[in-house]
Write a structure and sequence with these properties.
3-stranded antiparallel sheet, 4-stranded mixed sheet, 26% helix, 6 helices, alpha+beta
Length: 186
């Protein structure tokens, strides 16, 4: 776990900001939902109707083509191989409090039966949560179209997102773990 965290932080530091200044995204922890469903011995409809996740790196994202970045992103695709049908979510790979901002490396995942773009995501609210379920940072997305491109059904896009200082709700050590939520998508 420590090795992955260090690798994630290295990737985060190497990755340039892919969105406009102070733009967040949110994700939910599907692994927790799946674990709960397994513990009670039932499968939810969402678990049964999943779409295979396919990581797509854009040409303008060369920082995600290094072997270290590829291995890190591949490990998250293996950990979260499917996307809930009918949902767009965000998986936080790593986040770091940088004083004036919280920088996060996220995976946006499209489970809708249509393609989406930055225009579809802009205006949605991305929130990060501590391992205790407390909201630590939140912001309304305002993504640059070229950095998102077109996400087809089942596609996953890696992005760096910087939450502005005014979006920080609570000081938190993100090395302990983080989940995310995306709400209010157009």
């Amino acid at each position: 776990m420590l090795k992955i965290s260090i690798g994630l932080m290295t990737v985060l530091l190497l990755v340039g900001c892919s969105e406009k200044q102070s733009q967040p995204q949110v994700e939910t922890n599907h692994e927790v939902k799946e674990d709960v469903a397994q513990q009670i011995g039932t499968e939810t409809e969402a678990v049964n109707e999943n779409i295979k996740a396919n990581l797509v790196i854009l040409e303008n994202q060369p920082h995600f083509t290094t072997p270290e970045a590829q291995n890190l992103l591949a490990s998250f695709i293996e950990k979260y191989p499917t996307i809930e049908k009918g949902k767009v979510d965000v998986i936080p790979v790593v986040a770091k409090n940088e004083g004036e901002t919280v920088a996060a490396l996220i995976l946006i995942r499209n489970g809708l039966d249509k393609s989406i773009t930055a225009e579809d995501l802009n205006g949605a609210v991305l929130s990060l949560f501590s391992v205790y379920g407390e909201k630590t940072v939140e912001n309304t997305l305002d993504l640059i179209p070229e950095h998102v491109g077109e996400l087809k059904t089942g596609e996953v896009r890696a992005l760096r997102y910087d939450f502005p200082k005014d979006g920080i709700i609570e000081d938190y050590d993100y090395t302990k773990g983080v989940t995310a939520e995306l709400s209010g998508m157009n």
